[in-house]
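name: query_chain
kind: protein
chains: 1
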Amino acid sequence: MRPWSITPALVVGLLAAALPVAGQAPSPGDLAASLQKRYATIRDFRADFSQTMQGGVLRAVQSEQRGQVRVKKPGRMWWAYSAPHRQSLVADGAQLYYYNASDRTGTRSPMPTGDNLSTAVLFLTGRGDLQRDFTASMPTTHPDGEWHLRLTPRVRQDDFATLTLYVDRASLAFKGLSTVDHQGGTSIIRFSNLRENAGLTDSEFVFTFPRGTHVVSSGRAR
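structure:
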């Protein structure tokens, strides 16, 4: 399981951060509506992250990984995993790049379009809607200080079965998310040092493979 395999799902929640609501638990529909409204105010963000993953068949837990992420509407993101497994996933608005520093291999493919886009990527590009594209629910219990919103896509997605967003109970600042794939594998992402509307530029998402990288291209390159 590649660490970046669920990152498109991650973006659904990443851009929805602080929401001013009362301390009482909101309904799933109200929380989804507030997140959607808040999303419209976010142009970009950057953050540190940690990620842990567990396979659905063998239930083997992988080592925690850390890194930095930055995202800019529309369709730009950069996930940089630090050592010991240095990897990058970059979308520049037209192309997707994946680079594995350990074996100096990479892939390049066009950004999906139209019906090939997941609901998560649609949301990233500003054409998705949490209430329209997902069924929202909430667990009966929540960790101290957090609300969890579970999102099930109305149309089956290949990259995830459910997505759960974590928000601060007092401020509803976005704290992380978890995803479950169709084999029962889980991934948990936690964010820190989140900065919204940081003024990111398109040039910060220009990616070039290091010299000597074995690159496999699919589709039509730019």
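note: The first strand starts at residue 44 and ends at 54.
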